[in-house]
Prior knowledge:
Shape: elongated
Structural class: alpha+beta
CATH superfamily of the largest domain: Nucleoside Triphosphate Pyrophosphohydrolase
Low-confidence stretches: none
Distance between the termini: 29 Å
Strand content: 35-45%
Largest sheet: 7 strands, mixed
Mean pLDDT: 93
Oligomer: single chain
CATH architecture of the largest domain: Alpha-Beta Complex
Order of helices and strands: EEEEEEHEEEH
Amino acid sequence: MIPSERHVFRYCPQCRTEMTRRHDGGAERPVCPACGLVQYLNPAPAAGIVLLRGDRVCLVKRRFAPKQGLWSLPTGFMEWGEDPAETARREALEETGLEVELTALYAVESGLLPPDTPVVVIFYAARETGGTLQAGDDAEEAGFFPLDELPGPVAFAAHRRVLERLRGELSGGGPGAQP
Length: 179
């Protein structure tokens, strides 16, 4: 996945020299010819939860772009100084009103957040420990839905892959099974 030019520094943020490119560590990277700063174009980290009530999965309807009006697992970007588990718990509370305990690492997926931001999403299996289901933050709606009767299109390919895996596991195929 090649990053969009809009993510690449045109001028060095340290010394203001125009950036050039060179091969570094197996990839072509922006580099400052004056001070040597190398710009590493890394994906944005995010975390979320896979939360079940019986055979129903928790989903939120996105209030804002990208993918406004589509459904997703409760997920969000890591804040500075947060670890992925803290992010997953915070996003669950912000988007659903539910407090959760993370019970296992469920999946690590990569994808592209429109229009062109690469992301890595860490999904945790979770169980409810408190709170009341109520959409909040950037969620328009929140609810629990049977995997074979989702309320609408799922916003992101990474979330669709996680839901397919979950569907396979719940249909008796065991961990990692596909339907």
